C-alpha cells in the first residue's frame, strides 16, 4: 500500500520551495482579501481513510466547484431532459465568455461554464420548493455535514460586481432558455458559488462521483450512468479553457473554482481536494494544479 501521508507531505514540501506566481481573484472584491499563500490538500480513499496536509480544514468559497453539485441535483430531478437546454461540449473559452452563447442561440456549451450553470440554476428554481434551502440541504446530505453554509457577504459581493453574469442571464432569457426571473436565478447562482467548504468537506461531497452515485452514507443519489456522464463533463469541461492541460498533467476528472479550490477523483478509488487561492492566467489554482500533477505522477493513479 502507498504511504499517502508521506506523499502529501513531500508535495507540500516541494511546493513550499516553488515560487507562487499566481494571483488571487480580485473581480469579486471579497475574494481579493484571502492570503495568497494558503495551501491545503485532503485525500479521501473510497475505503474511508483520510490523509491531509496544510490548511485542509480552513473554509473557503467553493465558487465554480458548486456547479458540479447543482448539475448533479438538476440531473437527478429532470434526467436527460436537461440536455435539451445545455450541451456537453468543452467551450475552449473562459468561464464567462458570451459570444458563443449568441452564436449557438442561447444553448450554453456545457453546464460548468457560467451560462450553463445559470441554466442549471433555473432548472433548480423551477423544481425545488425552497431552492436555496433545498440545495444547501442536498450539499449537506452528500457531505454528511450540517455545518455547511452560504457566505452572504461573498454572495452580495458577487451580485454587485456580477455584470457578466447579468449579461449571460439576460441573453439566455432573450433566447427563451430561462423560465424564471433573471434576478431570482442569479440570486440562487451567486449563493451556490458562495458556499463555504474546506478540502475535507469537498472530498466528502464528491465521494458520490467516485462511488457510483452513492454518498458517504451509502445512500444512492445518482445512477452509475449519470455519474459516468457527470465525470466525463468534469474531465472535458472542468477547468475553463485549460481542461486539456489538466487532463494532460493530472489525468483525472475534476473541477476548479476561482476561490482557489480544486477537487478531483478517480472512480472507485479516491477523491482529492486542494486549496491554494492564487490563480494562474486561466483562472485555475497555480499551486493546486501542480500538487495534483505531482500526486498522480507519484502514485501512478489516474484514469489513463
Ligand atoms: N461565481 C463566479 C462567477 O460567476 C464563478 C467563477 C468560477 O469559479 O469559475 O464569476
What do these coordinates show?
By secondary structure, the protein is an alpha+beta fold. It has helices at residues 4-16, 66-78, 99-103, 114-127, 131-143, 152-160, 163-174, 182-193, 199-205, 207-210, 224-237, 243-249, 286-299; strands at residues 23-24, 40-45, 50-54, 60-61, 149-150, 195-197, 254-256, 261-266, 270-275, 278-279. The chain has one domain (4-299): Beta-lactamase. It contains 13 helices and ten strands. The strands form three sheets. The protein has a five-stranded antiparallel beta sheet with strand order 3-2-9-8-7, sandwiched between helices. The chain has a three-stranded antiparallel beta sheet with strand order 4-6-5. It has a two-stranded antiparallel sheet with strand order 1-10. Helix 2 (66-78) packs antiparallel against helix 11 and helix 6 (152-160) packs across helix 8. The protein is globular and about 55 Å long. Bound molecules: glutamic acid. Residues 63-64, 95-96, 114, 158, 165, 193, 257-258 line the site of glutamic acid (GLU).
> How much of the sequence is in beta strands?
5-15%
* Share in helix: 40-55%
CATH fold descriptor:
Beta-lactamase
Topology, number of strands: 10
**SS summary, helix count:** 13
Jot down its keywords.
3-stranded antiparallel sheet, Beta-lactamase, 5-stranded antiparallel sheet, alpha+beta, 45% helix, 10 strands, 304 residues
Can you describe this structure in just a few lines?
This protein is an alpha+beta fold and 304 residues long. Helices cover 45% and strands 12% of the residues. The two termini are 20 Å apart.
Amino acid at each position: 500500500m502507498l504511504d499517502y501521508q508521506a506523499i502529501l507531505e513531500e508535495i507540500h514540501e516541494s511546493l513550499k520551495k516553488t515560487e507562487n506566481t499566481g494571483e488571487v481573484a480580485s473581480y469579486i472584491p471579497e475574494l481579493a482579501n484571502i492570503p495568497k499563500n494558503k495551501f491545503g490538500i485532503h485525500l479521501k480513499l473510497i475505503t474511508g481513510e483520510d490523509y491531509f496536509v496544510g490548511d485542509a480544514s480552513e473554509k473557503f468559497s467553493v465558487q465554480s466547484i458548486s456547479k458540479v453539485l447543482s448539475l448533479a441535483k438538476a440531473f437527478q430531478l429532470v434526467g436527460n431532459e436537461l440536455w435539451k437546454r445545455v450541451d456537453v461540449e468543452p467551450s475552449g473559452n473562459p468561464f464567462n465568455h458570451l459570444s458563443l452563447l449568441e452564436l449557438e442561440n442561447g444553448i450554453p456549451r456545457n453546464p460548468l461554464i457560467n451560462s450553463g450553470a445559470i441554466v442549471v440554476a433555473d432548472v433548480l428554481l423551477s423544481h425545488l420548493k425552497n431552492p436555496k434551502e433545498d440545495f444547501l440541504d442536498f450539499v449537506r446530505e452528500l457531505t454528511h455535514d450540517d455545518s455547511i453554509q452560504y457566505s452572504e457577504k461573498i454572495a452580495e459581493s458577487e451580485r454587485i460586481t456580477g455584470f457578466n453574469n447579468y449579461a449571460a442571464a439576460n441573453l439566455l432569457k432573450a433566447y427563451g432558455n430561462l423560465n424564471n426571473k433573471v434576478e431570482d436565478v442569479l440570486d440562487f447562482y451567486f449563493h451556490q458559488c458562495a458556499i463555504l467548504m474546506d478540502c475535507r468537506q469537498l472530498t466528502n461531497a464528491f465521494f458520490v462521483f467516485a462511488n457510483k452515485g452513492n454518498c458517504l452514507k451509502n445512500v444512492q443519489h445518482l445512477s452509475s450512468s449519470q455519474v459516468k456522464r457527470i465525470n466525463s463533463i468534469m474531465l472535458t469541461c472542468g477547468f475553463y479553457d485549460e481542461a486539456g492541460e489538466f487532463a494532460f498533467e493530472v489525468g483525472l476528472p475534476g473541477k476548479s473554482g476561482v476561490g482557489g479550490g480544486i477537487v478531483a477523483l478517480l472512480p472507485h478509488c479516491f477523491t482529492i481536494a486542494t486549496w491554494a487561492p492564487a490563480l494562474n492566467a486561466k483562472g485555475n489554482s497555480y499551486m493546486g494544479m501542480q500538487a495534483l500533477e505531482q500526486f498522480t505522477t507519484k502514485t501512478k493513479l489516474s484514469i489513463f
